[in-house]
Amino acid sequence: MTYHPKSDFLSTIIERGFLADCTDLQSLDDALIAGVVPAYIGYDATAKSLHVGHLLNIMLLRWFQKYGGKPITLMGGGTTKVGDPSFRADERPLLTPDEIDTNIAGMQVVFERYLDYGDSATGALMLNNAEWLDHLNYLDFLRDIGRHFSVNRMLSFESVKSRLDREQSLSFLEFNYMILQAYDFLELNRRYGCLLQMGGSDQWGNIVNGIDLTRRVLESEIFGLTTPLLTTSDGRKMGKSQGGAIWLSADMLSPYEFWQFWRNTTDADVGRFLKLYTELPVDECDRLGALEGSEINAAKIKLANEVTSLLHGPDAAAAAEATAREVFEKGGVGGDLPTLALAAGDIGDGISIVQLIVKSGLAKSGKEAKRLIAENGARMDDAPLTEAGLMVTLADLSSPIKLSAGKKRHALVTLAE
Question: Based on the domain organization, do 52 and 185 belong to the same domain?
Fold first, then answer.
């Protein structure tokens, strides 16, 4: 990169590894130096929580606000009714308005951990695109907005092209999504003076669409900036684990399990993740990331503590580390482990160990639980489980049972009081 930005925000995100592409880096840099710039990232409300895959761009918004920008978290109350087709093999299930509102409320709690939504000049805004999309007149929209879009160009976007190349159906409903997202940028510029849209690099085509539309209709100079799509060093998509998505809501994933996800980071990813997901100085991230052998484990604990503190608070991070130490160093039962509380009626004359492994979240299905046992990967109270037909009785649960899948995933099973 030949241009060296002067603004703190761009300098920082380049140094820490956030930048994939920018439509006009120098002009954006000038705008950031000249005054408060509003910038947005859009989030469709497809689940009750955000997950680790969203965290890179949430940290981007946090740095943006820290260095004097005004972040806008745009909730897709309108676009969620259509569904983003980008790089998906099939159409998203359609949600009801009530489901969408519930999901937005859950996501809002997460955003408030990272951003300040106060009344200051740089106070974050949470907006909902249903505000302008729900009331569009279709014919007016076609005439005023639709005429600016070339179908030929839309078909050339990689997100659409990849779907068509595989001869997978792309409904007209989904095809409209990129027009609606472009219209979001226009409305945010018109209503709030928003100058910048940020997002993952898979959103590049949608972002450029919005810039083109806004320039044509409002003659405004606006910008787009994307972050890299992260994979771990072993090629897995960031944020996915054997147990499914790594949710950011404590209701959907315990702080301990969240902490453990980061503690299990591959050695080669530690330095990079420290730069992206913590606020530690870059030279400290580099130092920790360069550690080797058993010393790298201290860096992983630092990573887990820093990331968990930002989301769940320092007390939750400290409790998770203490639980991990108790479980792994002493073989004890940590009080902060994910817990399955069973009523006596759930157990009856006995419940199979396979059912308990599934109910506790250590396996997705009975088949997976049986395979875990067959491959000597399951333990009960730190003793290997060898019999898939084992039944657990009420008497067995007179004290909590600790179940383990592999060396790093654990759960408690207790009797409900």
Answer: yes
